[in-house]
Every structure is written in C-alpha cells, then in structure tokens.
Design brief:
The structure holds two protein chains of two kinds.
Chain A: E1 5-7, E2 14-16, E3 24-26, E4 32-36, E5 41-46, E6 62-65, E7 68-80, E8 83-92, E9 97-103, E10 106-113, E11 129-132, E12 135-152, E13 163-170, E14 175-180, E15 187-194
Antiparallel strand pairs in A: 1-2, 3-4, 4-5, 6-7, 7-8, 7-12, 8-9, 9-10, 10-15, 11-12, 12-13, 13-14, 14-15
Chain B: E1 17-20, E2 27-30, E3 38-40, E4 46-49, E5 57-60, E6 77-80, E7 83-97, E8 100-111, E9 114-122, E10 125-131, E11 137-138, E12 142-145, E13 148-167, E14 176-184, E15 187-194, E16 197-207, H1 208-214, H2 236-263, E17 267-276, E18 287-288, E19 292-294, E20 299-307, E21 312-322, E22 328-342, E23 345-350, E24 353-361, E25 364-373, E26 381-389, H3 394-424
Antiparallel strand pairs in B: 1-2, 3-4, 3-13, 4-5, 6-7, 7-8, 7-13, 8-9, 9-10, 10-16, 11-12, 12-13, 13-14, 14-15, 15-16, 17-26, 18-25, 19-25, 20-24, 20-26, 21-22, 21-25, 22-23
Helix pairs in contact in B: 2-3
Classes of the chains: A mainly beta, B alpha+beta.
Chain lengths: 210, 437
C-alpha cells in the first residue's frame, strides 16, 4: 500500500493520505486545511472548532456496504435550522468514493452522479419529480444549510463555503437523491437509505453510559 | 485498522450535561448527547435552545406542573426491538373533530447510534413509530407503502400544547401540523405536513403491557379504552380461519352423509294400510300387526304414518315389540291436517304424513301394537304404517352443520362489529344501523 507522505506546511506534523485520490485533508494537530498540489501541500485555511459531535461515526470507522468494506476518511459538516448533519466521505475497498450521510442517525450511502441537465437551484420545488437512471424521485425538502466545517480527507477542495442549498429527493423504494447547490454547477448524488445494523460498523465512537 | 493509520486522540466522550435554566435556575439535564435542538425546563416550561451554551429561551408556555404527566418518566430506558432507548422528550398534542378535542401523548426515544423513535399513547393504545425512508404512493383514499395498501382513516390538524424534555428538532407549543393517517392494522402510516415539508412515519400498534415490560414500569399499563384506528382486531385473523374450518368440516360432513347413505339399506321391512270408518273404533281399538324381520347391525328404524286426514286428526299409540326378547318401544304419533281461508288468504297447518326414527334397534323379529284415537265423530280415515330399517339420519348432520356455522357467524359478526367501531372514529364512518339520529 503506497501512501503519499508529507508534512503540514503549518506545524510540520506528518500528513498521511490514506486514499491516493484525496485532494484535501485537515491536519489533525493544527487543523490547517491542506490542499494537494503537484509538488506539495498548500495551506488554504483553518477549521474552526467543530461543534460538539453527536454522530456515532468518526474518522476511520469501518463498515460494509453491499458486500464491500469501506472506511471513513473525512467529512463535511452542515447545519440547518433543525439541526446538523454529516456527510462522511467513505472509500470502498475497490477504490470507489462514496458518501455516508448521517442526519440524526438516519443513514444513507450515495455516489456522485455525472448526470447532465440538472435543474438550477431557483427552479427546484418540493413535489417535483425527476427521473435519473430509470428511477423516479420526488423532491421532498429543500434545505438551506450552512457549511460548518470539514475533517479528514476529501476527494475535492471544499473549505471556502458559507450558505449552501440542498434539495433532497425520495423514491418509493428507499432510493434517494440529493441535488447539491454548493458549487456553481449543481451536483447530483444518488443513493439509498441504509440501516445502521446493516452497515456492520466498527470503530465507532463510544458514548458514556451506552 | 491498518498499520498505516495514524493514531487519533479520541474525542472527549460526551456525557449527560448538568445545566441550569436561565429563566428559573432549575437544573436542566441533557440526555441526547448533542442531538437535542430544544430542551424544555421541567419547572418553568421555558423552551430553551439546547445548542446554545447559555440555553437561550425560545418560548415559554403556561402549564400546570404535574398535570397529566408522562406515563413513562423522562430518562427511563427500555428495550424496543432489541435496541435500548431512553425517553428524552414528551409532548401532548391534540386534534379537534366535530367540536370534540382528542389529545394524546408522544414520547421521543433516543439511542446514540440509532434514529429517533417515537411512542404515542391514546386512551391506553400505544404505537411504536419510526420515520419512513421510502415515499408512500398516495392514491385517492389510500396510500401504497412497500407493497401494502393503507386505507385513509383521518385527516386532521394536530396542535402541540405541552412539551417536556428534549427534542431533536425545533419544538414549540402551539405548533400545527396537518396530519393524514392511513391504516392497515396493526400499522398506521401518517403524513405530517408543516409548511412545505411532509414527514411520513410508520407506527405499529403496541400493547400497553408490552410497553410496561419494555420499560420495566411499575404497576400495570392503563387499560385500553375503545377500539383504536390501527388496533389489530382480536377476531379478524380468525374469520378466515373459522370459515376455512367450516368449509373443511362441511365437506367432511357431506362425505360422512354420503357414506352413511351408502351403507344404510333403507329397506322397507313392514307396510300395511288400515281404515277407520265413521263410528269406529268402538271399545278396545288396539291391534297388533304381523311379525316382520329387522336385520343387520343395531341401527334405527323409521316409522312413517300416512293418513288421509282433512281438517281432522288421528293419534296413534305405537309399541314396537321384539318378539324374541319382549322388549318394547312405546311412542305416540299424531297426524293432523287443517286448512281453510280467512281474510289473509288460504292457510294450512300440519301434514298428512308423520315420520319418527327409533334409534338403536337390534336385529330380530318385531311386530307393532297400534291403538288409534280419533274424534268421537269423524269421517272415515284411511291410514298406512310403513317401517323402514336403517335410514340415514340427516337431521344429525344438520345439527352438526349448524354447530359449525354458528361460531363462524358469531366470529364474523364480532369482526364486523370491531371494524365498525374502528371506522366510526374515522373520516369514513360506517352507516348507522338501527340508530336514526
């Protein structure tokens, strides 16, 4: 296993990329946001203290999805008016990149979709129906959210965000879709809801008294 | 963990934090480990921002402390479907239907690894509720969910009027939600609409006794009153079963009947005709018949009396006597037939024929002693007596059939009554029977 190794340009701590395709990571010592360039690591920002965490998932949590083992490498943390949620970036044992979202312990696994012709943010409305990959989805909620921070490795640069909008879509068979309007070009993630027990998660956080 | 994984310092373990209410200073316990958005002070009913270190006051409401308290106290832990849950929040909500206010309890259940669950309680009826991940397909008066059809039960406007403890969402007293419920006992599918957002949840009817056991509560669960929307019918499961059983037994009976019919020889062993002229009988009227043979296994004989009575009667005292043993079976039969017409039209009563089955007659040589009785004045009457050996007794089968039919009908009726009671509380009440309001 080849793991690119370098040092944090800010504090000099050893930075190990577990996943070769990672573009960004956060130094776990000084919380500098580091972006990979062709030659070295560039410090682009600093993560403010993250709010007290309630997710049972943490970096290096391992699990199984559709018979493939995965490991959690990083996350983006969002807040909205009814709470917060985490988008954990997971890497499958075949190298595939996916997201394990945890919204108040409701879990879903999704994959980036390269579908074109996505509706712009100002045209999406609750109740609208879309069909992607022969699956019908209905817009169930549009969430104006606030980017709260990042942790660990991510497959793209993601650090200078503020207010972001998401549209969640559901289906009749447990599939779900998210339209992510945090960049100029909307991004689509397709996935499904998963049961906590089915993920067979290991290396979870422990909670006192539980 | 692979060898290359850097050691991570574990984040501090969260604990139930002890805080104080900024309004009244009472201790506030946070149990949901960062999941709570709002927490309600138990003493002064201030709704506080659980995410704010200073617990900023979001709303206060008036309520009588200790009035209609949660049946499961906050902080109680129990096991539901194999997972431990702690009661962290409690709210009372109500709907008003035709001027009547119905209120129920809702409990928020927390486990740090699992999604929030809810328990609701109304008049001793409990539901174990979780949020749906799939989107139900709503038709006109039903909703399809995971391949099952739920029938529309009620649409109402639910108001939150009392809150206690923690909620993983922004809870407020006075908040409204448009609630639409669809039932397929023992489950209920509900859509709660607030603003633009619709949340679907699935509840499963749970017995109070099971809740008491799950949460190890003292005493007994309050008794359930009435029939609840998704309460499983205690009999509906049996209705199909009883009719299947009925069908099976009916077929069995038919087979038996056919069998008995086959093995019965139904042979006429004696037949004779007699006549009573006007003025007869005079004095001692009894006489005996010729001896006839009754054969085969011990079985019944059928004695049939036919008489040409017409607005008259004849009564026959019979004795069936075994010539070999002297054993006698005494019985009396009446043949009467009356008819006429009145203002309602023509009528008739009785019959010119009578049959009786005498059971358990062993084989042997028999004769009948017959003593006719008639009116003192009568027209001539001709009558005949026929004795048949080993006739199938269908009446017995009829009784068995009825014995099977009655419980089937009773259970069906109970099931129908239960469903009527269920649906009488819905938006689609069944038509009233025998009750014109």
């Amino acid at each position: 296993m080849t793991q690119p190794v370098s040092n944090c340009p800010n504090c000099g701590a050893k930075i190990v990329f577990q996943w070769s395709s990672s573009v960004q990571t956060v130094c776990q010592y000084c919380k500098s946001i580091l972006v990979r360039t062709d030659v070295d690591l560039k410090r682009v920002g600093q993560v403010a203290d993250l709010p007290p965490d309630s997710s049972p998932i943490q970096l290096n949590t391992e699990g199984i999805y559709r018979n493939k083992a995965f490991v959690v490498g990083g996350r983006i943390l969002y807040e909205y008016d009814q709470g917060g949620w985490n988008e954990w970036h997971i890497t499958m044992n075949d190298g595939t990149s996916a997201w394990l979202s945890d919204a108040q312990n409701e879990f879903a696994v999704s994959f980036a979709s390269n579908t074109n012709g996505l509706p712009p943010a100002d045209q999406v409305q609750v109740g609208q129906q879309y069909t992607w990959n022969n699956q019908n989805y209905t817009v169930s909620v549009i969430t104006p959210a606030h980017y709260r921070g990042v942790e660990g490795e991510l497959p793209f640069q993601y650090w200078d965000k503020t207010d972001v909008t998401f549209a969640d879509l559901r289906s009749q068979i447990g599939k779900f879709a998210t339209l992510d309007y945090s960049d100029e070009q909307p991004a689509l993630y397709l996935g499904e809801f998963v049961e906590f027990d089915d993920l067979k998660l290991k290396n979870l956080r422990s909670f006192e008294g539980w | 963990m692979s060898a290359g994984t850097p050691p991570l310092s574990n984040p501090p373990k969260p604990q139930a934090k002890a805080l104080n209410c900024p309004q009244c200073g009472a201790a506030i316990t946070l149990r949901a480990l960062g999941h709570a958005e709002t927490v309600v002070c138990e003493s002064c009913h201030s709704i506080l921002d659980a995410k704010d270190p200073n617990l900023q006051i979001l709303q206060t409401f008036k309520a009588i402390t200790g009035e209609d308290p949660p049946l499961i106290p906050l902080g109680t832990r129990g096991k539901l479907r194999g997972t431990d849950y702690e009661v962290i929040g409690f709210q009372r909500r109500s709907i008003t239907v035709e001027g009547i206010r119905y209120s129920w309890h809702e409990y928020v259940l927390f486990n740090p690894y699992k999604a929030i669950r809810y328990l609701t309680e109304y008049n001793g009826h409990w539901n174990d509720i979780s949020v749906c991940k799939e989107l139900p397909d709503v038709q006109f008066a039903s909703a399809n969910y995971l391949g099952e059809v739920y029938k529309h039960f009620q649409s109402s406007d639910a108001t939150t009027y009392y809150v206690l403890g923690e909620f993983p969402w922004q809870v407020r007293v006075g908040e409204h939600a448009a609630v639409t419920e669809y039932v397929k006992p023992p489950r209920v599918l509900s859509a709660e609409k607030t603003g633009n957002e619709v949340t679907w949840s699935l509840g499963e009817y749970t017995y109070g006794a099971d809740i008491w056991k799950s949460f190890n509560l003292p005493g007994n669960a309050p008794e359930a009153i009435g029939v609840y929307e998704n309460q499983p019918s205690p009999v509906s499961e049996n209705v199909k079963g009883i009719w299947s059983a009925f069908l099976a037994f009916a077929i069995l009976l038919l087979v038996f009947m056919a069998g008995f019919d086959l093995i019965s020889n139904k042979g006429t062993v004696f037949e004779s005709s007699y006549r009573l002229n006007s003025g007869e009988p005079r004095g001692e009227a009894s006489f005996v018949t010729d001896v006839f043979n009754v054969e085969g296994r011990t079985s019944n004989v059928e004695v049939t009396t036919s008489a040409d009575v017409s607005n008259s009667w004849i009564y026959l005292n019979y004795a069936l006597i075994n010539q070999d043993t002297g054993q006698a079976w005494d019985f009396g039969r009446e043949v009467s037939y009356y008819y006429g017409s009145d203002s309602d039209g023509s009528w008739s009563e009785g019959s010119t024929k009578d049959s009786v089955v005498i059971p358990s007659i062993p084989a042997g040589h028999y004769y009948l002693r017959i003593e006719p009785e008639v009116d003192a004045v009568h027209a001539p009457i001709s009558y005949s007596v026929q004795v048949k050996r080993d006739v199938p007794v269908l009446g017995f089968f009829g009784i068995a059939f009825l014995a099977l039919l009655i419980p089937a009908i009773a259970i069906t009726w109970r099931s129908i009554s239960f469903e009527r009671a269920r649906w009488s509380e819905s938006d689609h009440p069944p038509m009233q029977i025998g009750n014109t309001e």
